[in-house]
Amino acid sequence: MRGGMRNAMPEQPADIRNKNFEEVALGYTKEMAVDEAQRCLNCPKPRCVEGCPVNVEIPKFIKAVAEENFAEAIKILKRKNSLPAVCGRVCPQENQCESKCVLGIKGESVAIGRLERFVADYARENGLDAVEAGEITPKGKKVAIVGSGPSGLTAAGDLAKLGYEVTLYEALHDAGGVLMYGIPQFRLPKEIVQHEIKALKDLGVKIVVNAVIGRTFTIKELMEEEGFDAVYVGTGAGLPYFMQIDGENLNGVYSANEFLTRVNLMKAYQFPKVATPVYVGKKAAIVGAGNVAMDAARTAKRLGAEHVYIVYRRGEDEMPARKEEIHHAKEEGIELRLLNNPVRILGDDKGWVNGLECVKMELGEPDASGRRSPVEVKGSEYVLDVDMVVMAIGQGPNPLIKQTTPELEVNKRGNIVANEVGATSIPGVFAGGDIVTGAATVISAMGAGKRAAQAIDEYLNNL
Amino acid sequence: MAKILFMQNLAPSIYEFVVDAPLVAHKCQPGQFVMVRTDEYSERIPLTIADFDREKGTITLIVQAVGNTTQHLCESFKEGDDILDIAGPLGQPSHMKNFGTVVVVGGGIGVAPVYPIARAYHELGNKVISIIGARNKDLVIWQDKMAAISDEVIVTTDDGSAGRKGFVTDPLREMLEAGAKVDLVLAIGPVIMMKNVAATTKPFEVPTTASLNTIMVDGTGMCGGCRVMVGGENKFACVDGPEFDAHQVDFANLVMRQQMYKNQEVLEYSCGGHCRCVEE
Ligand SMILES: Cc1cc2nc3c(=O)[nH]c(=O)nc-3n(C[C@H](O)[C@H](O)[C@H](O)COP(=O)(O)OP(=O)(O)OC[C@H]3O[C@@H](n4cnc5c(N)ncnc54)[C@H](O)[C@@H]3O)c2cc1C
Ligand SMILES: Cc1cc2nc3c(=O)[nH]c(=O)nc-3n(C[C@H](O)[C@H](O)[C@H](O)COP(=O)(O)OP(=O)(O)OC[C@H]3O[C@@H](n4cnc5c(N)ncnc54)[C@H](O)[C@@H]3O)c2cc1C
Ligand code: SF4
Ligand code: FES
Questions:
Q1: Count of A–B CB contacts within 8 Å?
Q2: Residue B53 class from Cβ within 10 Å (0-12 exposed, 13-18 middle, 19+ buried)?
Q3: CA–CA distance, A6 with A18 (Å, rounded to integer)
Q4: Among chain B residues, CA nearest to A253
Q5: Inter-chain contact A272–B260, Cβ cutoff 8 Å?
Q6: A152: nearest Cα among A234, A29, A254
Q7: Does B66 lie at the interface with A, CB-CB under 8 angstroms?
Q8: Residues of B173-205 as b/e, b for ≥16 C-beta within 10 angstroms?
Q9: Which ligand approaches the C-alpha of residue B17 most closely?
Q10: What is the mean pLDDT of residues B146-161?
Q11: Residue B159: is its pLDDT beyond 60?
Q12: How far, in Å, is the centroid of ligand 1 from the Cα of A166?
């Protein structure tokens, strides 16, 4: 037993990586992974498993790593988590499994996420994660999945393995949802997402891109005309919010979704080799402090912005982004302007941003969410000198499906109402992921897809 | 993939494409558009569905080569080639009913998106008066097709080389000043034209719609890049529009936002970019 401190993650140096789009964290070597795995106590009542939203059998897969049986390790992981290479990179483990690990009480918890990533990468690179086809018995029923984010991908995979004929409809030209258009290459290489999508195709899942459900087909048409017996809606939280302050329509103001989509999905960082342009200022203010804001800030830095400010109305402890990403961002030279709230955006006579007026804030009493709520300091307004502003204050549900499916019940924020296994107000229509919960995490979206796949199987067996 | 089944040059730098897009054709309504990505280097650009044939599963696109992607499509693609991605139909369909008398105004290439809407108005029993405007006679497109579905067609050109000399707003203003009963005006064309049509009809309180050609990225409501101020509220043209009440649109903001990439694109693509000379 080693206890103590975890193995450090090899990384690109901060002042080099903040100029390129290569992955920041390089991953454990086999030796590091085996060494790290040997720290695990293999607890009889593993608390880490309770902390995992999909209850991965953590000590079991770690034991396999310690024994250098990586084929077994990937099998154990994939039983509960169909996208371990993704989750190992982007899950907020510090609030989930790792926060519960007993080793964390006296020293550092086992680096569960890094081990998960190592196993998935090792398996992919060595062909250990190929699905064993041939075991599947066709059920003769068809399921449509709407949206190809982590939720839709998971549901599609599980249903295909159960023997259903699965078609996945995606509005954009590439499948993957936020994993493709939102989370940048330097945190989640797109080749990994594409590898998972190829695995789905190998399972027989038919992927139809450029299909905007609600427009190309309505949900009703999928069931009544296209012959689907059930539908799973995993359309995410894709609608960007703006602050509704003056100056948001000036040139040089982006939603984080637009900025990141131009760079990730449309690869504008290769402009002019690719045709999609992106504007990047010399001094950029990113409004918000979640993962989306960190990604936008670090992307702006990589594209040449000299100063990048995170403008956030609360304090550092309240920042919702993963701790690791805040740490990475600071290392890369992102400047935090905490306890600052934007009041309006200023522009020049040609309609371009040239300043962000902010008011300083101080922390007051805890609010409903338990976070201390910020209050304005009267008369503290000042202008932050910027020529680019990115709004990263959250996303809501896209209203298209609701508008074209009036019978589908939604709550007042526009999220689809579904029970714990994803059943909605329409028989045979299930939903999960961000479209139900509001913007959340990759793993919770995956978990919802998994539970819904089970529920759809039961529903269709009883039909 | 969508195969180009037919392609022809209609006017200088304006091309007609008939493409195989059965999923779009089976469902589209007048007023809707598609997002097109020509190849893996391309932008996603919005193009209006100018015509469609549900049985053959085809849609017609009319494209004016104005920049990188449109030039690439018009100059490098030929019949039989595949367009990589076509997504749609997108946007709110035009509001359809029997209004009475409708004046449709198409400026330049705007005639193409006007056509399916005007045809539907006509089929619903509206009296359709079409005003087609262009810089000169070579740039007048689809006059015959418009004539076939209109009760009256008026052509204007800036230089008088076809129809009457002047702008589309001239006959429109005369009509309104003469007290003609007009129940709806629809304008599609350059922003400046739509703005002037709105200004012309405003004093007469004639309901006026314009179809806005904002810059778009996804076309599904996900990025907000297409936002425009309409009646003091921010709207996403791709999902809330593209048609809006022209009297409520902040055209100055629209013009300003369309300029966002002008310097960058003109600078980088002095050749038009489609030759991919910049690739290395
Ligand atoms: C920039 C960014 C960074 C993030 N970082 C992290 C992180 O580090 N860790 C973490 O756990 N979470 C992170 N998240 C959150 C996480 O990505 C989401 O919670 C998760 O992707 C939700 O998955 P989903 O399957 O519900 O939807 P999405 O991933 O949003 O996918 C939905 C898909 O449905 C498609 N779609 C929408 N409407 C239609 C329609 N009508 N027809 C067809 N297709 C449609 C969309 O185009 C999209 O591809 C981040 C999010 C963003 C935006
Ligand atoms: C709903 C909708 C329907 C449209 N329908 C048609 C159509 O049927 N036929 C057609 O030819 N065009 C149509 N357009 C306009 C077309 O999308 C643009 O011409 C195209 O995106 C320009 O792309 P590009 O790469 O060729 O030019 P770029 O190289 O991107 O730009 C060239 C110049 O055009 C400006 N520009 C860029 N995008 C737009 C835009 N969307 N509108 C106006 N100016 C722009 C740029 O600022 C630049 O100055 C439509 C636009 C919208 C929003
Ligand atoms: S809680 Fe920590 S030590 Fe115990 S089984 Fe889980 S990872 Fe291993
Ligand atoms: S084009 Fe992205 S929201 Fe309209």
A1: 124
A2: exposed
A3: 25
A4: B225
A5: no
A6: A234
A7: no
A8: bebbeeeeebebbbbbbebebbbbbbebbeebe
A9: 2
A10: 90
A11: yes
A12: 20
Cβ of B217 under 8 Å from any chain A Cβ? Answer: yes
Q: Which of A173, A275, A399 sits opposite B69 (nearest CB)?
A: A275
Q: Which atom of ligand 2 is nearest to the CA of B241?
A: 1
Q: What is the pTM of this model?
A: 0.92
Phi first, then psi: what are they for B117, rounded to 5°?
A: -70, -45
Token readout for B264 is 């960058």
Give yes or no for a cis peptide into A272 (omega within 30° of 0). yes
Order across the sheet with B45-48: list the strands.
B45-48, B33-37, B85-90
Residue B64 phi, psi (nearest 5): -105, 125
Lookup result for tokens 């304005």: A376
- Digit-coded pLDDT (tens) for A136-149: 888 999 999 999 99
Query: Is the pLDDT score of B161 beyond 90?
Result: no
Q: Which residue in this structure is represented by tokens 């899942």? A: A205
Q: Which amino acid, residue A5? A: M
Selection from A24, A31, A3, A6 nearest residue A111 by Cα = A6
Q: What is the ipTM of this complex?
A: 0.89
User: Of A146, A216, A273, which to mutate for an interface test with B (greatest number of B Cβ within 10 Å)?
Assistant: A216
Average pLDDT over residues B210-228: 94
Residue of A nearest to B223 (CA): A258
- B225/A255 touch (CB, cutoff 8 Å), yes or no: yes
